[in-house]
Amino acid sequence: MSHKLLLSDITDQLAETANISKKEAGNFLKQLFDIIEEQLVIDKIVKIKGLGTFKLIWVESRRIANVNTGEIQEVAGHYKPTFTPDAALAEAVNEPFSHLDTIILDEESVTDTPLAPSESDEKESIATTHVNDEVEKSETIPANIDTDNDEIQPVRKPRKWLNALLVVILAVLAGFVGYQFGKSASNKAELKKTVTVMVIKKKIHPKDSLIKEAAISKDENVKPSTDSVLTTEMLEAGARLTRVAQKHYGNKVFWVYLYQANKYVIENPNKVTAGTVIDIPNPKIYGIDANNAESVAKAKTLEAQILSKLN
Amino acid sequence: MNNKELISLLAKKTGKPLLDTQMLLTKTCELLGKNFAEMNALSVQGFGSFEVTKKQERLTIHPTTAKRLLIPPKMNLGFSASKIFKEKIKQLSHES
Q1: Which of A87, A205, A214, A216 is exposed most, by the fewest CB atoms within 10 A?
Q2: B92 in reach of chain A (CB within 8 A)
Q3: What's the complex ipTM?
Q4: For residue A248, which of A290, A287, A200 has the smallest C-alpha distance?
Q5: Which pLDDT score, from 0 to 100, does residue A308 have?
């Protein structure tokens, strides 16, 4: 690989392949390059089939500044020899990279707009799981409070938020009454009571908001009931698999899995038709993890495979 | 000057029949092509050198559509004329 050859090496090779003496081959090659040179001077262009075109290009006179002295000099117009390889030869030389094509980068993947929805999606998913945990807690918390305050027990059956509101009111009342009775009592006792009121308030407020969120989260949890398919999505006009992957998996590389899971509806992953309904597979099946470099690398190799198949 | 003229001139100078010259020329081109495909460099004394270079992949922005394009790497066959040849050519005067 990548040897520096001289004309004598080519002479040897030519003598061998054409079955002529080295002297003849050497003479032939010498004449060939002599003629190219000679004819270039006369004709300004020499075309050789299978090799390429040698051409003389006229460079107009121009003024340049000397980098060191800043002196402006005039460069006279002159000819410049150029060589353009034959299309077939250029292709043969470029063989190791010939399968590559210019890629149009998804402009939205660079700007911030697609990232924003994906982030909010993540937040939502976190919030829902978070809420699910705390909904269970919130059901146990009121029981604790009820045992603390005997007065509240009759109000158990109504809705939880009503329950919570009553707890606040009663607690404030209790605090007020306590304040009235504790006029003669020491400041310390008074402080304790206000603290307990505040504690109860704190317990209740998150619970109140949690219940509302729980209602929402329950609706959302209905969809991803099946294990293999997370959800389905209808592709809009101008939709890209990469964008869908970015939205659901946090990295556009994972579009390959979207393509694999939906091969029967997607003919060309580079050009999906609008209105196609695709399944978003559960990331666990393919080991999709945007934060895992290994997972991303795996997707990338798969991507290269798919793209080379298409081309 | 095209291929035909080159062959006839070569035949005249080497004193070989046209067909043989043509055969030799195509063989030479094939040989050169094979060598360049293997990333070999060739330098011809007094004329210049041929060398295969790799052009790195690069990002460009399409001037009219403003789309970002990723141009893949490429192997390019280049030719640089020797100093003697360049000097010879520089002496030529432009006629148009």
Answers
A1: A87
A2: yes
A3: 0.85
A4: A290
A5: 77
| Residue A178 or B25, more confident | B25
Q: What is the mean pLDDT of residues A130-146?
A: 46
What gap in Å lies between CA A284 and CA A187, rounded to an integer? 59
Nearest to A35 among B13, B71, B75 (CB): B13
pLDDT band for position A73 (cuts 50, 70, 90) = confident
- In this complex, the residue of A1, A27, A41 whose CB is nearest that of residue B14 is A27
What pTM, to 2 d.p., does this model score?
Answer: 0.46
DSSP letter for each residue of chain A: ---EEEHHHHHHHHHHHHT--HHHHHHHHHHHHHHHHHHHHHHSEEEETTTEEEEEEEE--EEEE-TTT--EEEEPPEEEEEEEE-HHHHHHHTGGGTT---EE--HHHHSSTTHHHHHHHHHHHHHHHHHHHHHHHHHHHHHHHHHH-GGGGGG-SS-HHHHHHHHHHHHHHHHHHHHHHTTSS-HHHHHHHHHHHHHHHHHHHHHHHHHHHHHHHHHHHHGGGSSSEEEEEEPPTT--HHHHHHHHHS-GGGHHHHHHHTTTT-S-TTSPPTT-EEEEE-HHHHT--TT-HHHHHHHHHHHHHHHHHH-
Q: Where is pLDDT greater, at A114 or A275?
A: A275
Q: Chain B 61-90, CB below 8 Å of chain A: which residues? A: 66-79, 81, 85-86, 88-90
Q: Enumerate the residues of chain A whose CB falls inside 8 A of the CB of residue B38.
A: 1-2
The residue of chain A with its CA nearest to that of B52 is A93
Confidence at residue A265, expressed as pLDDT on a 0 to 100 scale: 79
Q: Are A2 and B72 inside 8 Å of each other by CB?
A: no
User: Using CB atoms, which residue from B14, B69, B90 is nearest to A104?
Assistant: B69
Residues of A in contact with B5 (CB under 8 A): 39
Which amino acid is it at A244?
V
Nearest neighbour of A94 by CB, restricted to B3, B74, B81 = B74
pLDDT band at A281; cut points 50, 70, 90: confident
